[in-house]
Amino acid sequence: MDAISAIRDFEQAVLSAIADAATSDALEQVRIEFLGKKKGRLRELQDLIGKVPPEDRPKIGQQFNTAKTAADQALSARQLELAQPKKKAAQEFDITLPGAPLPLGKLHPLTQTMNEFKEIMGRFGFSSIEGPELEDERHNFEALNIPHDHPARDTLENFYLAAACVATGEPMLMRSQTSTVQIRVMEQQPPPVRVVSLGRVYRPDTIDATHSCMFHQMEGLMIGDDVTMAQLKTVLRLFATTYLGQGVHIRFRPSFFPFTEPSVEVDMSWKDGWLEIGGAGMVDPNVLEAVGYDPEQVTGFAFGLGVERFCMRRYQVNDIRRFTENDVRFLRQF
Ligand code: DAH
User: Beta strand pairing status for 127-128 and 193-202?
Assistant: First the structure.
């Protein structure tokens, strides 16, 4: 067989083998058989051409190159084609199908609760302010009429921070109540006052299902010309009813707090038995004096409610530790 027809046969054979290869593996076999560097049929062809008379070589060499280029190009094209079944599937993708839902992050249930509290109290005309969690004794105790020998000031009942004491030169503690913010507000603005303050408080309690070393309170303060205990009860009832729904009852029990006179413990019932939700009372004249207000001119009420209590009641959470365990299965429910 002369070289020219050998080249033509080679070209036909390789092109049809490439076209017939149904998979990438089959195509690779074709490549080895025809174009393999060591033993491929192209190689044999090359040897054959080496033997043609020198005067025929340019022409035959050109034919050879054309056939080789055609084979190379067909091979690459087919390689691409076989490697693209995914692209075909993508073309068949139905863009009208609904997307797979992505789980979204959410605010922590207590953050949600506090946001809702602020919003509700905002509707009653209470603006929301924040105070520091690291406090001095004036704001946590003294201005609140809590004397030096009061058991609530015991160092074992509070988180005093030695480093903060060194830095400021006075005893500093993590606030044990949000009542601190009452003092901060009244120091800064003249009456009338109508504010709530929500945030964390810290106490070295033994942790169990209803106690934690860190929990949240909502402090409320209303000061004006003629603020009464009846208004206090109404505000608390309206607040709780707005948060939980109809059927909320509020009950006051006589109590004692150094910063209120008279003082009450506040209980709430909703759907079933009574639950203590916080303390309240009429702001003690000593507190008004401590911030430079005139107790002869203004009166006011104050209250401090446990945020967790409300959230747990509404969502039937039976263990306060759930809020800080970071169990996503729990957090997702809110
Ligand atoms: N600060 C009190 C506590 O942590 C709660 C409280 C009681 C706040 C009476 C008040 C109040 O504003 O008037 O237990």
Answer: parallel
